[in-house]
Amino acid sequence: MKKVNIILFGIGNVGSTLIEQLFDTKKQWEEHFGASINIPVIANSTKALFKAEGINENWEKDFKKSAEAYKLEDILDFTKENDFEHLIAIDATASKEFVEIYIRLVQNGFSLVAANKVANTLSADFYKKLRKELEYHGKHFLYETNVGAGLPIVQTIQGLHQAGEKITKVRGVFSGSLSYIFNTFSTNKERFSEVLQKADKLGYTEPDPREDLSGNDVGRKLLILARELQLEKEFEEVEIQSLIPEHLNGETSAEEFQENLGDLDEIFQQRKKDQDTDHVLRYIGEIEVKKAALEAKLISEPKNTALGQIKGADNIFEIYTESYGDQPLVIQGAGAGAAVTARGVVSDVLKIAQQL
Ligand SMILES: NC(=O)c1ccc[n+]([C@@H]2O[C@H](COP(=O)([O-])OP(=O)(O)OC[C@H]3O[C@@H](n4cnc5c(N)ncnc54)[C@H](OP(=O)(O)O)[C@@H]3O)[C@@H](O)[C@H]2O)c1
């Protein structure tokens, strides 16, 4: 039976859920896919647990007791000493620096699965260099959860594009936090600042909500999808409407921003009032393929459309193509959360395992 060796970087929300899901699917993989799963190394930003026979259900205790400070070399040496084959490195970190080691991993025999978006949103040069290395070494890189968490967005776009279907436009609500904020604000009577506080309590926003309100996360996801469509774009070329008032931008501290949260109320109340009847506010991302234009912006949308009717923190993606005509292919559902994201990662790992 083929043994797939998984080296997991990042054991936070997604990483720890992923470990549990991999344990749960172990039997199914062995029975149906002829593959067994072994997780010989798990690591956070400072420490790694090495277990040649693979971690087990006691991994949290074992990590606390036996994890040691490490460098990438230690992991590479360990995999060589143990003659591990079918290596897959999973990036479940949120680290900007971690992606610097992707190419070294590929050169050392690893395929990659990433929940982390960073690698696909760096320069187009890095994007191409990584793909060249993958091709040269015959390795794979999957990252379905970069956009829409567990929703099958990347694979759908890839599949249509590779099959020669002409995608003309992708439009949707790409951010779970901004989805919740505007779905709630548009229908409830609460002030914008109250909705923001509620979103924070529910764990939808980043500790500093300006990360969400900047629109940068939506911009990054647009870039990832655009590159799937062979649009050679850089992050700086994405037109992003920030929702942060200028006087509360990055130069003010997160505390100052929180103290002045009320300043946002008048701005968004007015925006809500200025709409036509039966319209709602939505923060959307849009790729106009022909114009190669990528835009993230706040719009007013009729409330009976697919975008207008979404609820909670759902994501929605409308994919317009030549064959689908005016009626887009629509994918909708939870666009965030550890369980759905980890499941998307498991699915990527399985796809690679089947090709190894
Ligand atoms: N949660 C979601 O709904 C969702 C959806 C789609 C995609 N994602 C992506 O999934 C990734 C993980 O999210 P999360 O919510 O699990 O984050 P998290 O809870 O903050 O966990 C991050 C983990 O990465 C580790 N880490 C940070 N830098 C590292 C490095 N250089 N090397 C090795 N490990 C490192 C952290 O270790 P320390 O504890 O030592 O810092 C921690 O274990 C992120 O990129 C996120 O954008 C998440």
UniProtKB/TrEMBL annotation:
Record: active site: 221
Residues where NADP(+) binds: 10-15
Enzyme kind, highest EC tier: oxidoreductase
Cofactor(s) for this UniProt protein: a metal cation
Protein name as catalogued: Homoserine dehydrogenase
GO molecular function: homoserine dehydrogenase activity; NADP binding
Binding site for L-homoserine: 206
InterPro entries xrefs: Asp/hSer_DH_NAD-bd, Bifunc_Aspkin/hSer_DH, HDH_cat, HDH_CS, HDH_short, NAD(P)-bd_dom_sf
Amino-acid positions noted as binding NADPH in the UniProt annotation, renumbered to this chain: 93, 117
Pathway: Amino-acid biosynthesis; L-methionine biosynthesis via de novo pathway; L-homoserine from L-aspartate: step 3/3; Amino-acid biosynthesis; L-threonine biosynthesis; L-threonine from L-aspartate: step 3/5
Classification of source organism: Bacteria, Pseudomonadati, Bacteroidota, Flavobacteriia, Flavobacteriales
Gene3D superfamilies given in the database record: Dihydrodipicolinate Reductase, domain 2 (3.30.360.10), NAD(P)-binding Rossmann-like Domain (3.40.50.720)
